[in-house]
Amino acid sequence: MSISEKGNPNALANAVSNLDLDTPEKPYLDSNELIINMGPQHPATHGVLRVILKLDGEKVLGTECVIGYLHRGVEKIAENRTYTMFNPYVDRMDYCAAVSNGLGYCEAVEKLMNVEAPARAQYIRVILTELNRIASHQLWLGTHALDIGAMTPLFYTFRDREEILKIFERYCGARLTTHAFRIGGCQYETYAGFEKDVTNFLSFFAPKIDEYEALLTTNRIWLERTKNVGVISAADAIALGVTGPVLRASGVKWDLRKAQPYANYSKFDFEIPIGENGDTYDRYLVRMEEMRQSMRIIEQAVGGIPEGPIMGKVPKVIKPPVGEIYHSIEAPKGELGYFIVSDGSTQPYRLRVRPPSFVNLQALDIMVRGLLIADVVAVIGTIDIVLGEVDR
Amino acid sequence: MNPALNSAAATMNTGMAPVATPWFFYALAGAAVISALFVITRRNAVHSALALIVTLLSVAGLYLMLYAPFVAGVQIIVYAGGIMVLFLFVIMLVNVERSSKERQFNRIWPVGLAAACALMALFVSALVKGRALFPERLVKLSEGTNTQDIAKALYGDAGRMGQYTFAFEIASLLLLVAILGAVIMTKKKI
Amino acid sequence: MADITTLHYLVVAAALFVLGVIGVLTRRNVVIVLMSIELILNAVNLNLVAFSHMWGNLHGQMFTIFIIVDAAAEAAAGLGILIAFFRNRETINVDEIDLLKW
Amino acid sequence: MPNFVMSYLGSTVTPGQAGNQFWALMYVLIIFAGVSVAVMAMNWLERKALAHFQIRLGPMRVGPHGLLQPFADALKLMLKEDIIPTEADQFVFWVAPLIGLLASFTVYTVIPFGPSQAVSDMNIGILFMLGVSSLAVLGIVVAGWASNSHYPLIGALRSSAQMVSYEVAMGLAVVSAVLMTSMNASGTGTLSMIGIVQAQQQQGIWFIFKFFPLGFIAFAIFAIAMVAETNRAPFDMAEAESELTAGYHTEYSGLRWSLFMLAEYAAMIAVSSIAVTLWLGGWMRPFPNLLQAPAWEFIFSLFPGLTFAGLAAIAFIGTARMPAQSFFRVQRIGLAVFAALLGFIALLLLVIAVAGRTADTSVAARFREGIDYVYWFVLKVAVFMYLFIWYRATWPRYRFDQLMRIGWKVMLPIALGVLMLTAIVGVIVS
C-alpha cells in the first residue's frame, strides 16, 4: 500500500526488522503487505501496549509487542525503600488485583524472615484475595467482551465489581490500590459486619455469574468469535512459561493454590477448572468457573474465621537475614512471583517480580499468527494483561 | 417485430408532465461532458473515478428524461453502485500514489489525439448532414409500464418466450464466465 | 428554449464517445483506460436509449441493458487482469504491459 | 391563495404525479426536516435506551432527562474545528461525507408515507431506493481512502466488500417480495413503492405472512442484510471501535463527522422504511380489510392522538417525580412545558380525528387520513429503530470473514431458494 511510503518510511520498517516473516510462500510481490501500529493509543490494547502488526490484507503475518510505556521502575524503587515502605508499591503493578500483589509480597518477606501470619490473618487474607480474584475476572470479562463488541457485559460486571470494592473500602479505606496486608499479618481488624457483607455478596453474586453467562456463553456470535481463536497448545504454553487461566485452558492442571499451597489454601475445598482446546472460549469458561470456585473458597473461609491476633510477631524494623527467596502465588492472571535478595539491611538488595501478564504476553505472537485483526484484539483481551504489571 | 414493444407507445402515460425539460437536459449533459473531461485528465485515479460517477449519474438522469426509468435504475445500481465500487476497490489495491507522480500520457498521445479528433470530425459531419433524418419531436414512450414492458421482452408474456429471452440467458452465462475469470485471475492460490 | 430532440442526445453521446476514445488512446494508467471504456459504452447506451425514444419502441433499451451487463463483465475481467498483472510486474501503465513484445 | 397551492389539497396522488412542483418541494422540505428531527430523536433515544439496557441513566443533565442533549451535541459538533489532515486528499476528504449524506437523503423521495404522502411515485421505486442507497458505500470508501491512514483504509475496504456483498442477498429478498405483487388477476407486478403497498392491500395480506414461511424468510434476510448495509452492530466492521479505533471516520471530527452520523441514521430509517413498505404493509393500519366499518376506522384514527396523550402522561409523571429541590426547578418547568406541548399535539390530533371522521373528500377528512397513514408508517419504522438499538446492546461483533461467509454462503443461497420457491408457489396458486 502506498501510505507507508509517505512521511518516514523507514521508521516502522526498522521497528519490525526482527519480525519473523517466514510466510509459507511469497507468491508475488508483497504489494499487499501492510504494517500497522496498534497502540499505544488504541481502544483495545488495554492501556499502553503497542503491537506492530504485519498484515496481508486483514491476515496477521506477524506481531511485535513494544512495551515500556508505563515503566515506572518498581524493581529499582524497591532497592531504595525499606521492606515496609515498598509494600504499597506492589499494589501499583497489577492495579486490578492489588490485594494479590500485596499477599505475594508479604508472604515472600515473611518467608524470608521465617515468620508466619496468625491464623485469623490468613483467613482474612484468603477472603480478600479471592474477592479480588473475582473483581479482576469481572474487569477482564467486561473489557474482553467490549473488545469483541458486546458493550453490555462491561456495565454488568462493573456494577457487581462495585460491591467487592465497597467491601475493600470498608475494610481498609481504599478501593483499588488497597494495601490491605502488612508483613506478618493484616493491618486492620475486620469491621463489624464484615462476614455479613461477604456472605451477602456471595448470595448477591451467584445469580449474576449466570447473568453474564446468559449474555455470552451460548451466544452464537460469541462462540464464533472465540472458538478456535488464539489457540495455544499445552506444550507451547509450558515452553513459553505461560501460567494462570491461559495455561489451564490448554488443559494443564497447574494452580499454585493446589500445587504449592500458600497462605492456608490447603484447608479449603475447591476445584481447578481446566479447558481442553486452549482457545479463547476455553479461557473464558475457565475464568467463569474460577469465579465460582473463588466463591466456594470465600464461603468456606468466611464461616471459619478463627479468633485471635491479626499480626504475627514481627519486629518494628524489618530486617530479614541475609539470603534470598523466591515465593510465588496464584494471582488472578497467573503465577506472580517475588524474588528477594536480602543483604541483611532494612532494604532489599534486589527485588525481582515475575509478573504473569508479562510472561503471558509472549504467547500473543503464537496465538494470533494467521488470524485476522479482529482476533488480535480478542486475544489481547483473553490473555488478560495489565500494562502496569507488564511494564512495572 | 414484437407487437408488445411497439404498442408501448400507444399506451402513453399522460399523467407525467415533464419538468423544465431543456434546463434539466443542458444541466445533465453539461455535467456529464465536463466530468467526462475530468475522467481523462486527472492524475489521480480516484478523482477520475469520482468524476466518472458524476458522469454515470448524469447519464442516468438523461435516461429518466428519455422515459427509460428502468434503464436509469439499472445504470445507478449496476454502474454507480457496483462497477464503480469495484473500480475504487482496485484503485486502492494498486499503487495510485506512484502512478500519479509518473508521466500521465503515453508516447503516442499526439497520434491518439489526432485519431480522436478525426473521429469527432466524422461525428460532426454525420450529425450535420444527417440532421434531417431525426424527427423534431420525440415519440413519448409509456413511462408507467416501462418496467413491465421490459420484463415482457426479457421473459416473454403469456407463456411465449420473449424476444430477448435467449440473449438474456446468454448474458447470464457471460456474467458467470466473467466471475470465474476474475476469481481465477485474482486469487493467489486456488 | 427549444425542445430537446434526438439530435441533442446524439451530440452529448458523441462528445462522451470522443472523450472516451481520447482517454483510451492517450492515458497510461490502465484503470483510467478502463474507465474511458466505460465512458464509450455509456455514450453508446445514451444513443441507443435516445433512438429507442425516437422510434417509440423498447429495443434500444433492451440493448442498453445488455450492454450494461457486458460492461459489468468487462469491468470484472479487466480489473482481474489488472490485479494479476500488478502482482507480477508492480505497474499499471499500459506501455509497460509489453511481455508479448519480447 | 395561488391556484397551484390550493389545487393539490385533497388530491389522491403524490405531488410528483400530479405535476405540482410547489407541493413536491414542500414535501421534500417536510421530509428533510422530519428526517433531521427523527435522527436527533433517534440519537437521544438510542443513548437513553442503550443506557437503560446497560443499567445506566444516559444523558440526564442537558434538559430534563437529557432531552436537549442532541441539540447540545449538534451545537458542539458545529462549533468544533474542521480538521483536515495534512496528508489527506483535501477535496475528496471534504466531499466524502456529502456523498453518503446525499445518497441517504435522496432515497426519501420515493418512500411512501401514505398513498399520496410521498414526493413522487416512481415506476422503478424499489430499484431506485436500492440503487441510491448503494451509493452510500462510495462515501465510506472514498472517506477511508482520502484520510490516507491505515485504519480508515482498512475500514473502507471492509465496508465496501461488506456492503456490496449484502446488497446481493438484500436484492434477492426484495425481488421475492416484488414477485408477490404479481400474484393478482392480471399477473403484472410492480416496482413502485406505493404499488407494492397497494398490492398488499389488494391481496389482503402483509407480504411477511404471504406463503408462510416464505415471506417471513425473505423478510428476515432483508432485516439482517439491512443491518449490515447500514454498518450497525453486530455488523459494524467498518467502524469497529475496538479494532479500527473508528474505522473509516477515524480522521474526521466536528461537523464532517456529524454528517457521517446523520447519513448513517438517515440510512437506517430509509432501509427500515423499505422493510416496512415491502413486508409490513407500509402505511396501512392493522386489519384494513377485516375491520373496515366506519366505527373501526374512527377507533383506529384515535391512535395517533392517544399515543401523544400517553407520551404527555409519561412526561407529566416524570415532572411529578422530579425531586422537589430548587436545583431541579428549571428542569421541572422544562419537562412540564414539554408535557404540555405533547398534550397539545395529542388534543390537536384527537380534534382532527373527530372532525375528519366522515370518509368524505373534505380537506379535514383527507388530513385525518394522512395523519393516520403517516402515524402507522412511522410506528412500524420505530419498531425497527428500536431493534437496531437492541441488537447493538445485545450482540458482540462478527469477524470480517464470518460476516462474508454468512453473506455469501448462508444468506445468498437461502434468498435464492426463497425466490424460486416463491415463484413456484405463486405459479401453483394462481
Structural domain count of chain D: 1
* CATH homologous superfamily identity of the domain at 19-101 in chain B: NADH-ubiquinone/plastoquinone oxidoreductase chain 6, subunit NuoJ
User: What is the CATH architecture annotation of the domain at 19-101 in chain B?
Assistant: Up-down Bundle
The chain pair with the largest interface is:
B-C, 94 and 77 residues
Looking at the structure, what is the overall shape of chain D? globular
- What's the CATH class label of the domain at 19-101 in chain B? Mainly Alpha
Summarize the amount of helix of chain D as a percent range: 55-70%
β-strand amount of chain D: under 5%
CATH topology name of the domain at 19-101 in chain B, in short, is Four Helix Bundle (Hemerythrin (Met), subunit A)
**Gross geometry of chain B:** globular
Largest beta-sheet details of chain D: none
| H and E string of chain B | HHHHHHHH
Strand content of chain B: under 5%
Low-confidence stretches of chain B: 1-19
The topology string of helices and strands of chain D comes to HHHHHHHHHHHHHHHHH
Oligomer: heterotetramer
Task: Please name the defining characteristics of this protein.
heterotetramer, A: 392 residues, alpha+beta, 3-stranded antiparallel sheet, 8 strands, globular, D: 430 residues, mainly alpha, 17 helices
Would you mind describing this structure in some detail?
- The complex is a heterotetramer of chains A (about 400), B (about 190), C (about 100) and D (about 425).
- Chain A is built from 16 helices and eight strands.
- Chain A is globular, with a radius of gyration of 22 Å.
- Chain A has about 400 residues and is an alpha+beta fold.
- By secondary structure, chain B is mainly alpha-helical.
- Among the domains of chain B are: about 80 residues, Four Helix Bundle (Hemerythrin (Met), subunit A) (Up-down Bundle), CATH 1.20.120; about 45 residues, no CATH class.
- In chain B, helix 3 runs antiparallel to helix 4.
- Chain B is globular, with a radius of gyration of 21 Å.
- With about 100 residues, chain C is mostly helical.
- The longest helix of chain C has about 30 residues.
- The relative contact order of chain C is 0.13.
- With about 425 residues, chain D is an all-alpha fold.
- Chain D is about 70% helix and about 0% strand.
- The termini of chain D are far apart.
- The relative contact order of chain D is 0.13.
- The model of chain D has no long low-confidence stretch (mean pLDDT about 85).
- Chains B and C meet through helix 1, helix 2, helix 3, helix 4 and helix 6 of B and helix 1, helix 2 and helix 3 of C.
